[in-house]
Amino acid sequence: MSRPRTRMADIAALAGVSTATVSRVVSGSGQVSGETRHKVLVALDSLGYERPNAERPGNSSAIAVITPELVNPIFALYAHSMQAEITRAGFLPLVCTQTPGGTSEEQYVRSLLDRGVAGIVFVSGRHADYRADISRYASLAASGVPFVTVNGARAEVPAPDFSTGDAMGIEAAVHHLVQLGHRRIALLGGHTHIVPAARKAEAFRKVMGRELGDTDPLVTETFYTYEAAASAARGLVEAGTTAIVAGSDLQALGAARTIHAMGLRVPEDVSLVGFDDSMLMAHLDPPLTTVRQPVQSITTAAVRALTSMEPGSPQEHQAYVYTPDLVVRGSTGQAPDRAGSDPAPRAARTHA
Question: CB count, 10 Å around CB of 162?
Fold first, then answer.
């Protein structure tokens, strides 16, 4: 039995628009906002009908966002913000996430090039790894497909990068803790072959030397995960640390779990600062003091830059750094009395 013809009314009802709007999207005539076009295309997909030729893959109507796994809420926030900004620009957003054993960044790029995407946004991708082979980005640039990177500027990558000012965030966090009387402050950060982690560690050492004369502060490297941070935090607390600056909110949550498991309190015994200000950090007990990434500003600038690029035109590396904000909440407080006693032995550096 043949399938009944699509009725404009069915598509309009599902998309929540008028039949005239559906007609404009299908025919490619008239002006329709990116958000409205996206609703109509989703309705077409949901009803099982083919998109109009101009909206099919291979016609440069889509912009891809390649991001790490979405378990870390900051990546989910970037993906959500990118989707909205790309839609407003009149393109179809394609979010590609990486998982262990799943599709790699390189595989995604090959597939996206085959589909003829209009551009690609790399969020904390291989471009942010000093150990990674970044020749693939030169090849991508040679293909003529515009792309930008987020959080991981590398001068060797021929594209503009839009990043949070990691150093500014760490300096603000340490200054805040010093003002509260803390002297034994540790950094619980990521592995420093990753660009943002390296910048946090470098900034931490500089500000600790400048503000406290500590030329060898305690810096622990581990994965940006809850579990790894929980394991690494024990050594920091046992070394007499009264404040921990974490490289991510997930790491801060892991540290908080360990502090409580040791029978201590946040912030009465150990103050805690996160980094990202991802969802729900304001609703913890106590609410987390953290460095807020300017996600919306970075997203808006990155997408606008990408959509203004001419396909096939050569691009050069440019680094745009956006100022983060320290959001002070309940997880930081005055240093406990033990901060004034003789320093405790340093814990061994952890490289989990």
Answer: 27
Cβ atoms within 10 Å of 210's Cβ, excluding its own: 12
Side-chain half-sphere CA neighbours of 73 within 13 A: 17
pLDDT, residue 46, reads 76
Cα→Cα distances 88→63, 66, 95, Å: 12, 19, 15
Local confidence band at 11 (pLDDT 50, 70, 90 cut-offs): confident
Contacts of 324 (CB under 8 A, 6+ apart): 164, 165, 168, 169, 172, 291, 292, 293, 294
Residue 263 CA to residue 209 CA, distance in Å, equals 31
Tokens linked to 266 = 């946040």
Q: CA–CA separation, 316 vs 347, rounded Å?
A: 44
pLDDT of 54 reads 52
CA distances, 212 to each of 19, 121, 181, 315, 350 (Å): 67, 40, 11, 43, 23
Name the H helices within the chain: 8-15, 19-27, 34-47, 73-88, 105-115, 135-143, 166-179, 195-212, 226-238, 249-261, 295-308
Radius of gyration of the chain (CA): 24
Q: CA nearest 258: which of 235, 222, 233, 286?
A: 233
**Arithmetic mean of pLDDT, 205-227:** 96
Q: Which residues contact 314 (CB under 8 A, 6 or more apart)?
A: 141, 158
Reduced to 3 states, what is the DSSP secondary structure of residue 7?
Answer: coil
Burial class (CB in 10 A: 0-12, 13-18, 19+), 287: middle
